[in-house]
Write a structure and sequence with these properties.
The complex is a heterodimer. Chain A is mostly helical. Chain A contains 15 helices and 4 strands. In chain A, helix 3 runs antiparallel to helix 11. Chain B has 2 domains: 167 residues, P-loop containing nucleotide triphosphate hydrolases (Rossmann fold), CATH 3.40.50; 62 residues, no CATH class. A 6-stranded mixed beta sheet of chain B has the order 6-7-8-3-9-10, sandwiched between helices. A 4-stranded antiparallel beta sheet of chain B has the order 2-1-4-5, with helices on one face. The chains are: A mainly alpha, B alpha/beta. Chains A and B meet through helix 1, helix 9, helix 10 and helix 15 of A and helix 2, helix 3, helix 4 and helix 5 of B.
């Protein structure tokens, strides 16, 4: 137990526990398909944007290929469970493995160049995979997609089978995945690994001069990001029960970029806020369908002007300044006492 | 005295420009070696070749009798050769104390597995690092800034922080690229004193690029002069000052 406590340096983790409890008790209050569906999408966006955040906010790479990992995870699960009778967990696991492998290969190739060229190459890989999904008909069923993906079910021998069929059950499944991923992300962010990532983002030559193998760490960030994407993709395939090449979509990519940047690149809290805002706001704006997109765009512009470092980045910066001010005041107070 | 760093016939050219042409050097343990020369004479290029940021086109570099030519920068750093940069480089959006810990942590342990799964062991390393960092920051007189972002420091303070960071891993060779560029005279004195103190108390080896002749005269045991990528003089600072070749290189007389 003590060990567990040390693993999650208590600092600030209590808020996450509240967040987890909040997520877990939602179905007690509502079984509305609409709200649960919205929160399920929130969960998937959160998983994906955490992966993207590791790249943009972590090592500072503008990687434009998160939908690629999402798609690889989704197709792996879809093909394995629909055509080869794999169990849900097997598909999920292999989905994670395949997206990790794809992330590794794309990472190695794309990291040969830097900055803008890197962004373009990752984008190109996404488009290549989309073309493969369209044209490799024997494997992916081409543009028709793969329908009839079974609902996730976990069977444990001698205990029984458990199928996630109702919205509530499906909601709990994504909640478990989200909680595990958030814990993993938190652990990375608050470790020396997280600090190493940030050092690369801040100043790569300097990091290298202090012994950081920047390429290795970039690939580590890439692979972990890929795994997050794979988990989301695998879940998506079972949730929507249909996968088509449209899954490698630019629309998804831009949404994720907005979530990460508006929420606050580099902060876990940032992506949680971002993902929540961008699943809830568009829904809330349905009340005024005519001006919905207009309000949405205006909101984005205002946030980016007022808080270019993201909503959470802005808040964090303010809090930090306050604490610093308080500290210097206390110090001055001490000096006065001494001189008096 | 033992030779720590040996540079044999190192050349580097960028297209038609010969930035370095068969430069030979050696750096002995416990000395402060100065590297001077007019702008564009290849000083920083030489530093970059030694620390792995550039791949030399010819020649060999040995560190403690082991060849390090063409190794990547992080491997060379981990062998015990730490450099600073000409224009100040710090991790801007990290606090001063985090900058200091970051400068040490790869030297303590590079394993990613340990980082994630051995919290108690890492906690111990972290405490060691903080203790050392606070000592050094105190020594440099910037301990009161430890919770500020590095970007909030003045230029001179950032320069001190950079020197502080380079001291964290206790490197065998400390390579400073223009430590006094754009720094006020009081701060220059402070940096001089720090270098002297480390050299006399801990026998720390330094390799310093500098334009400030007074600084070099005051500090160095030996000076190497580069001009157009070639070594034109080497010796005691007083002698170098009178060397006609050096005067010609600097003043074009």
């Amino acid at each position: 137990m003590k060990r567990l406590k040390e693993l999650f340096v208590a600092r600030g983790f209590i808020l996450y526990i509240l967040f987890f409890i909040g997520l877990s008790i939602v179905p007690v209050f509502t079984s509305s398909r609409y709200i649960l569906n919205m929160l399920i999408y929130f969960g998937m966006y959160l998983l994906l944007s955490m992966g993207l955040n590791l790249m943009i906010g972590g090592v500072g790479l503008l990687a434009l290929c998160t939908p690629l990992f999402f798609g690889v995870g989704a197709y792996t699960s879809a093909i394995l469970t629909t055509f080869h009778n794999f169990p849900f967990l097997g598909g999920l696991l292999l989905g994670m493995v395949f997206s990790a492998v794809v992330a590794y290969v794309v990472g190695i190739l794309a990291l040969r160049v830097s900055y803008h060229a890197f962004a373009i190459i990752t984008l190109a890989f996404m488009i290549i995979f989309q073309l493969v999904a369209y044209d490799w008909v024997s494997l992916t069923k081409g543009p028709m997609g793969i329908p009839g993906i079974p609902r996730p079910s976990i069977s444990i021998p001698s205990i029984g089978t458990w199928t996630f069929d109702t919205p509530t059950e499906l909601y709990y499944l994504i909640t478990v995945l989200v909680i595990i991923s958030v814990v993993v992300f938190y652990r990375i962010q608050n470790s020396r690994l997280g600090r190493t990532f940030i050092s690369i983002r801040e100043d790569e030559p300097l990091a290298e001069a202090y012994g950081v193998d920047s390429k290795k760490y970039k690939i580590i960030a890439f692979v972990i990001g890929g795994i997050f994407g794979g988990i989301a993709g695998s879940y998506y395939a079972h949730y929507v029960k249909f996968v088509s090449p449209e899954i490698f979509s630019m629309y998804l990519l831009t949404t994720l970029l907005i979530i990460v940047i508006v929420g606050g690149a580099g902060y876990l809290e940032g992506v949680i806020i971002g993902a929540f805002l961008f699943t809830v706001i568009p829904e809330a704006l349905r009340l005024a369908p005519e001006i919905r997109d207009l309000i949405y765009a205006l909101l984005l512009i205002v946030i980016l002007i007022k808080a270019p470092e993201g909503v959470y980045g802005r808040y964090k910066e303010k809090m930090r300044r306050l604490v610093l001010q308080k500290k210097t005041k206390e110090k001055k107070g001490d000096l006065h006492e001494v001189s008096a | 005295m033992k030779s720590l760093l040996e540079i044999n016939d190192v050349s580097k050219h960028f297209f038609a420009i010969k930035a370095l042409n068969k430069v030979n050097l050696d750096l002995k343990e416990g000395e402060i070696l100065g590297l001077i020369g007019p702008n564009g004479s290849g000083k920083t290029t030489l530093f970059n070749c030694i620390t792995g940021f550039y791949m030399p086109d010819g020649g060999k570099i040995y560190f403690e009798e082991e060849e390090i030519t063409g190794l990547p920068p992080h491997e060379i750093a981990l062998k015990g050769m730490v450099r600073t940069f000409q224009l100040v480089h710090v991790f801007r959006k990290m606090t001063v104390i985090e900058n200091m810990i970051m400068a040490l942590q790869q030297f303590q342990d590079t394993s990613v597995i340990n980082t994630l799964f051995r919290p108690r062991y890492i906690e111990k390393l972290e405490e060691e690092a903080i203790e050392k960092a606070e000592k050094i920051l105190d020594f440099l007189g910037i301990l009161f800034l430890k919770d500020n972002y590095a970007s909030e420091l003045s230029y001179g303070q950032q320069k001190l922080l950079e020197i502080g960071m380079s001291l964290m891993p206790s490197p065998k060779v400390l390579m400073l690229d223009e430590p006094t560029a754009a720094v006020n005279p009081t701060m220059i004195n402070k940096i001089t004193q720090i270098i002297k103190k480390l050299n006399s108390e801990k026998n720390q080896t330094f390799f310093v690029i500098e334009h400030n002749i007074d600084f070099i005269m005051d500090l160095c045991n030996r000076v190497v002069v580069l001009d157009h990528g070639e070594k034109i003089a080497e010796g005691k600072p007083e002698k170098i000052k009178e060397d006609p070749k050096v005067i010609e290189a600097y003043f074009g007389v």
